[in-house]
Amino acid sequence: LSSLNSSSITQFLLLALADTRELQLLTFWLLLGIYLAALLANSVIITATRCRPQHLHAPMYFFLLNLSFLDLGSISTTLPKAMDNSLWDTRDITYSGPFGAAMSAPTRLS
């Protein structure tokens, strides 16, 4: 009676966003556009709040700056992998991938 389940999880299987190659490429370009727009918008917010601190003393701008950094961190961990999966038609992600990205986010932001 001492048999134990010794299986381990090494990867997650993801659902595909599209089945045909044309839709996968369309998904890739759409995600790339969203990613670049988010990078540009957050960079503008960070630049505006860092370059003109004498005019932006309100706590709102402090929190907006932090929100922009958090948004950059979160979007830079999820969207590139989604674009990679869409472009190369892969449907798996390693178990350590999301954990490593989540643990490295605080060090990237500081």
From TrEMBL:
Membrane topology: Multi-pass membrane protein
Superkingdom, natural source: Eukaryota
Keywords assigned by UniProt, alphabetized: Cell membrane, G-protein coupled receptor, Membrane, Olfaction, Receptor, Sensory transduction, Transducer, Transmembrane, Transmembrane helix
A single GO molecular function term of this UniProt record: G protein-coupled receptor activity
Pfam families: 7tm_4
A cellular-component GO term for this protein: plasma membrane
InterPro entries: Olfact_rcpt, Olfactory_GPCR
TM regions (residue ranges): 28-48, 60-79
Keyword NAD carried by entry: no
UniProt cross-references to Gene3D superfamilies, sorted A to Z: Rhodopsin 7-helix transmembrane proteins
Localization, UniProt: Cell membrane
Full protein name: O14I1 protein
Species annotation: Falco tinnunculus
